[in-house]
Design a protein that fits this description.
By secondary structure, the chain is an alpha+beta fold. It is built from 7 helices and 21 strands. Helices cover 15% and strands 27% of the residues.
Length: 421
């Protein structure tokens, strides 16, 4: 009689424990270091190969995905044109003004006309004492994969806001970058002034960013200066920054708001696969790797579930909360960070990293990514569906607590699996 999927998984669990117990003290240590299911994946050469082939933790600068807007895209402009419009370090100027329709009380504005605009040399002067660095995964609200992971460096935005000597009636800050001097192409975002002035919940500050992985921003990444909001999706991290408007308005006016997106949603916790074999032989273990996004609620677990397509799905359980999920292994900090970092080392100081050892103080890093792996036990011939999900630090299983895509992609990924001889 064919064994049920649950009994196969239970058998795999028992065999795994027996294997490590035969290994003596080393085996017991491994049992304490890894989830019981899949703890033997380090002994499987195919699993080891899949892990070895994972992308580097930090993204190489040329490997960041590009979702830039504009016609032509600002980073594609010839150097002379970029100089002309202020998109080089020696020509960049940031104008900071009051909103004429909802004016705050400011001591002064920073404008090109009055020759008070904030320039790149001013930024570097602030950076001598105010520069900060932090790790962040950059993702799009509507795309279920990372654009890139890196160490972002800049000066807290509030340091520039204070240069305007604000006094009262300031509730929100709008900002946008250069988009061919065409109002129809403008892409803008906004933040409440409270988030800019104060770093709540141990978050890093919102920054005027000028470096990525220790190197000057490239035009593709928003050079010379962009906004980076640690807990936000990419649409809040405006590239080619040129203008900032201080306002007494209470509401956002983000471009994404007009496109049916939730403009106030922070990063969600979710996961997806990276390597997954769609066809395998019967009773052969299946190595799977993936990545996870550590959202605002942190990451506690990554889990997977194999469903035999002949069996009915759980009733009245849209998010599969009652399914027999199994723990995958969240991989530890890498020995090699990648990302074109100088000497392959995390720059000192970087928030969240020990300056002496260069290692993260906590793992997974908040607002970053992780890699995970699972060695799925062999299965009888048939057709199956593989799903994976995260559990955040509050115990919420993906896609909860915010299952709606307009507040960020977090749908449970599913992969078809065919097992045949």
């Amino acid at each position: 009689m064919t064994k049920s999927l649950d009994s196969l998984l239970a058998e795999h669990r028992t065999l795994t424990r027996r294997y490590f117990l035969r290994c003596g003290s080393a085996g017991l240590a491994a049992l304490g270091s890894f989830p019981l299911l899949g703890a033997d994946f380090q002994q499987d050469p195919r699993m080891a190969k899949a892990i070895a082939n994972l992308e580097s933790y930090m993204t190489e600068l040329a490997g960041f995905r590009d979702v830039s807007r504009g016609n032509p895209k600002p980073h594609s402009l010839p150097l002379e044109k970029r100089k002309e419009v202020g998109l080089t370090r020696d020509t960049w100027k940031l104008e900071v003004i009051g909103d004429p329709e909802a004016p705050p009380r400011l001591g002064k504005s920073l404008t090109v006309k009055e020759k008070t605009a904030f320039g790149f040399q001013d930024l570097m002067k602030l950076a001598e004492t105010r520069a900060v660095r932090f790790a962040k995964v950059m993702t799009c609200l509507n795309i279920g994969c990372p654009l890139g992971m890196g160490i972002w460096e800049g000066v807290p935005l509030r340091d520039v806001i204070w240069l305007t000597q604000p006094r009262s009636d300031l509730r929100r800050v709008f900002y946008y970058g250069y988009h061919n001097d065409d109002p129809k192409q403008r892409f803008q975002s906004s933040l409440p002034i409270g988030r800019i002035l104060e770093d709540l919940y141990d978050l890093p500050p919102v920054i005027l960013c000028y470096k990525l992985n220790g190197q000057w921003l490239s035009p593709q990444r928003g050079a010379p200066v962009r906004i980076v909001v640690p807990e936000a999706y990419g649409f809040k991290c405006i590239k080619w920054l040129s203008h900032m408007v201080l306002s007494n308005r209470f509401n956002a006016n983000d471009t994404y708001g007009t496109q049916n997106n939730d403009v106030d949603s922070p990063l969600k916790t979710f996961c997806a696969t990276l390597s997954f074999p769609p066809v395998v032989k019967p009773n052969q273990s299946i190595p799977v790797t993936g990545w996870g996004q550590v959202g605002i609620s942190g990451l506690k677990k990554v889990q997977y579930w194999i469903h035999d397509d002949k069996d009915p799905l759980p009733e009245n359980d849209r998010y599969f909360t009652k399914a027999p999920w199994r723990d995958a292994t969240i991989l530890p900090p890498p020995k090699s960070w990648g990302g074109d970092l100088a000497d392959n080392k995390i720059p000192v100081p970087t928030m969240g990293f020990d300056p002496e050892t260069g290692q993260p103080k906590t793992w997974p890093l908040p607002l970053s990514k992780v890699h995970w792996a699972a060695l799925v036990p062999g299965l009888p011939a048939g057709e199956y569906t593989f799903r994976c999900r995260t559990i955040d630090q509050n115990g919420n299983a993906q896609p909860l607590p915010r299952p709606f895509n307009k507040s960020g992609r977090a749908s449970i990924e599913q992969k078809s699996l065919i097992v045949k001889a």
